[in-house]
Design brief:
Layout: E1 2-7, H1 11-20, E2 27-30, E3 47-48, H2 59-78, E4 82-83, E5 87-91, H3 94-109, E6 115-119, H4 120-126, E7 136-140, E8 144-146, H5 148-161, E9 165-167, E10 174-177, E11 182-185, E12 190-198, H6 204-208, E13 218-228, E14 238-241, E15 251-254, E16 260-263, E17 267-268, H7 279-292, E18 301-312, E19 318-321, E20 328-332, H8 338-357, H9 381-390, E21 397-399, E22 404-405, H10 406-414, H11 422-429, H12 442-453, H13 477-492
Parallel strand pairs: 1-2, 1-12, 2-9, 5-14, 12-20
Antiparallel strand pairs: 3-8, 4-8, 5-7, 6-7, 10-11, 11-12, 13-16, 13-17, 13-18, 15-16, 19-20, 21-22
Helix pairs in contact: 1-5, 1-8, 2-8, 10-12
Length: 493
């Protein structure tokens, strides 16, 4: 029996679970996939938005700017890379400069600080690769970049360190309202909890409808991206175009690990799992990004990916206790700026929980800092040599593109909420994120996973239980003998 069950281990669910672990309550974090941060959190623009483009009076506006202000401290506590790069919203006409002014005024209304409307010359001083056709821009210095999946993983890890139970591969298929509690049904498990927090992302409307009449719908919107090799060091800031009804438009942005990417487009779809890329979508983001800057090189692209935003029919976040189910809290429709807003949303949800439970006692053992991550490439030569003497596994480079060592991979596997798959290792310490996209290091990472988890290498998966990679040896001796015997018999005939 738990006090609180959180459904969904994306950025919202992990933020809330970690925030609630500050208190003396029994919490379980339930995820239908085989790892945390495996939905929208692992495929989005990774921007910490300043908050000027959210409509005043909405929940998005309420939580965006406060969330952004929490990032520096949060990422420091959790040892997650974060960089305040600033952002530029480009204008290419005097009409678009009017939009820039509206965004500035809106930002002031939303409590956003350190913004400035600047002219073309100053824009090009900040980022020289941008188009000569621009007129001016809104410069928001407080915008930044982060790795969403690394942050969600760190939040989950710290939550588990502080007493939260994490349950993976556990899709909630039904919820019973009992007398003073909820019973959550999964394929082979039952969980009972006094309160339920619905952070199920693309399926949050379905989870809500297990206990209440429909009050919102999730309308999936797919966005596609291209990622460039680190050799294309193209922009210093996050580059937006003037927003439209479909969103913030196609952007050009650096990543926290030194790449550049372009995207996304915005395509409303029916299938909530449809994350394939299309020629039409990729062509569109290239055409759109060419308006912002010249010189992007197609031969520098190392991968393409798509993510799906959990857009709500309310066109806003859906946060609060269900009117029909006491103790059931929805945290739904967490699309952009959901990543930015997540820390502030978590505090708000904790306040709701306190009210519903009549107050919460502090967890006297709560530690906000997770164990530091050793990033070998960032160490000095002296520190590298010392580390290798202590643990020779840090002297074996597994991923040459990103200089990731065996020691880092082993550590990622054995941490709380550790990696259990090829993608799980990639999300945590990045082997397979470079130019070759795992072509060389993938097999070696699989060997390490099999050894450290004590499983057969054929049981190592890409991400989920069904995403097998190996089925057997290509030169199976018995199969070879059968084929040889058949060939010999055929010659006699």
């Amino acid at each position: 029996m738990y006090d609180i069950a959180v459904i969904g281990a994306g950025i919202a669910g992990c933020s809330i679970a970690r925030e609630l672990s500050r208190y003396n309550v029994r919490i379980i974090l339930i995820e239908k996939n085989s790892d945390v941060a495996d939905g929208t959190t692992k495929a989005n623009s990774a921007i910490v938005h300043a908050g000027y483009d959210t409509k005043p009076g909405t929940l998005k506006a309420r939580f965006n700017a406060p969330g952004a202000q929490m990032y520096e401290r949060l990422c420091s506590e959790l040892d997650v890379p974060y960089k305040k790069t600033g952002s530029l919203v480009l204008a290419f006409s005097l009409d678009e400069m009017k939009t820039i002014q509206k965004l500035y005024d809106q930002g002031i209304s939303n409590g956003v600080s350190d913004m400035e409307i600047i002219g073309k010359d100053k824009v090009l001083e900040i980022d020289s690769n941008l188009s000569d056709e621009l007129v001016g821009a809104l410069y928001a210095r407080n915008a930044g970049i982060v790795s969403p999946w690394e942050l969600a993983i760190a939040l989950a890890e710290n939550a588990v360190e502080n007493g939260v139970n994490l349950l993976l591969d556990s899709e909630v298929t039904n919820i019973e309202k009992m007398n003073g509690l909820y019973r959550l049904h999964m394929e082979d498990k039952l969980v009972e909890a006094r309160l339920v927090i619905n952070c199920a992302g693309l399926y949050s409307d379905k989870i809500n409808e297990m206990v209440a009449a429909p009050s919102f719908k999730i309308l999936p919107r797919r966005g596609q991206y291209n990622v460039f090799d680190k050799s294309l060091n193209f922009v210093n800031t996050v580059i937006f175009q003037c927003p439209s009804d479909l969103g913030k438009g196609v952007l050009i942005s650096p990543t926290i690990h030194g790449n550049t990417f372009i995207g996304p487009d915005a395509e409303d779809i029916q299938d909530r799992e449809s994350v394939q890329t299309t020629m039409e979508g990729i062509s569109y983001i290239w055409e759109a990004s060419a308006r912002s800057a010249k010189g992007l090189k197609p031969n520098a692209v190392i991968t393409a990916f798509a993510g799906i935003r959990a857009r709500s029919s309310t066109d806003d976040f859906v946060i609060g206790e269900s009117k029909e189910a006491k103790g059931f809290i929805n945290v739904a429709g967490i699309e952009s700026p959901g990543l930015t807003a997540a820390p502030a949303i978590a505090i708000h949800v904790a306040d709701i929980v306190k009210e519903l439970m009549g107050g919460l006692g502090a967890n006297a053992d709560f530690n906000p800092a997770r164990r530091k991550v050793l990033r070998f490439i960032e160490l000095s030569e002296e520190d590298k040599n010392i580390l290798i003497k202590q643990d020779p596994r840090y002297g074996r480079i597994i991923c040459r593109c990103e200089s990731i060592t065996e020691g880092e991979i082993v550590d990622a596997i054995h941490r709380k909420a550790g990696a259990r798959s090829l993608d799980g290792v990639k999300k945590r310490v990045r082997p397979g994120s470079g130019r070759c996209q795992g072509g060389f290091c993938g097999p070696k990472v699989m060997e390490i996973l099999a050894r450290e988890l004590g499983i057969d290498i054929k049981d190592v998966v890409k991400n989920s239980r069904k995403s097998y990679i190996l089925t057997g040896e290509t030169k199976d001796k018995s199969l070879y003998e059968d084929v040889h015997d058949f060939a010999a018999a055929s010659k006699k005939i």
